[in-house]
Amino acid sequence: MPLNFIANILQGSWDFLKVMPNSTLFILFLTTAIGFATSLINKRMTNMNEYKRLQIEQAKINKEIMAAAKSGNQRRMDRIEKRRAELMSAQSKMSMNTMKVSLVVSIPILFGWKPILDFFGESVVAYFPFPMPLIPAEMSIVSWYFLCSFGTNVIIRRLLGLSFEIDPEEVAVKEDE
After folding, report:
1. Cα 163 from chain centroid?
2. Could you give the percent of the chain with pLDDT greater than 90?
3. What is the pTM of this model?
4. Is the N-terminal amide bond of 129 cis, ω within 30° of 0?
C-alpha cells in the first residue's frame, strides 16, 4: 500500500484519494494540518498567561455574583458589576485577536475548498460506524471534514495549551467581603 501511494503521487495521479480509506485519511490529515496551523498562529498571537488570568477572573466574578445575589448585598453587586464591565472590555480585545487570526486563516481555506469539492464531488469519503441523529451514515467530504475538525481541534488545542481547566482553588471567593 505505501509503495502504491508513492507511485501514484510520482505519476501525478491523485484519483487514488477518491477511494476509501485513502479519502477518509486524506481529509483527516487535511483537517489536522489546518487545525494545527490555525492553533499555532493563535498561540503566537495570544498572550496565554493573560488569557488564563482573564478566564480565572471571569470565573471569580461569576462566583462572587452568585454569593452577592444569595446574600442580597446590593453594594457588593454594584462593585462586582463594575469589575465585570472592565473585564468584558479586556476579554473583547483578546477575542478580536482570535477573530483576526480566524479571518486570515479562513480566506485561503475558502479558496482551497472549491478544487477539493470538485475533486471529490458527491462521493462518499467515510462511513459513520453506528446510527446517530443528524449524522449521516455515508459521509460526504463536508460532513466528514466538520466531524474531523471538531474532534481534532479539541485535541490540538489541549496539546498546544490553548485550552485549560480552571482550578477551583484559583476561583475561591472570600465570603466576608
Report:
1. 9
2. 10
3. 0.69
4. no
> Which three cell numbers mark 160?
498546544
And the C-alpha cell for 83?
469589575
Q: What is the mean pLDDT of residues 134-145?
A: 87
Eight-class DSSP state of 135: B
Q: How far apart are CA 165 and CA 143, in angstroms?
A: 29
pLDDT of amino acid 31: 92
The amino acid sitting at 108 is P
- 129 and 144 Cβ atoms separated by less than 8 Å: no
Write the CB contacts of 162 (distance below 8 Å, at least 6 apart in sequence): 39, 42, 43, 46, 48
Residues contacting 87, CB < 8 A, separation 6+: 54, 57, 58, 61
Q: Give kind and range of the element (H or E) at residue 126.
A: strand 126-127
The residue ranges of every structural domain in the chain are 17-171
pLDDT, tens digit, 9 for 90 and up, residues 144-153: 999 999 999 9
Q: In whole angstroms, give the CA distance from residue 169 to residue 165.
A: 12
Cell of 72: 442580597
Give CA–CA dist 75/69, Å, rounded: 11
User: Grid coordinates representing 134?
Assistant: 443528524
User: Averaged over 25-43, what is the pLDDT?
Assistant: 90
Which secondary structure element, helix H or strand E, spans residue 139, and what is its range? Answer: strand 138-139
Residue whose C-alpha cell reads 463594575 in the numeric block: 82
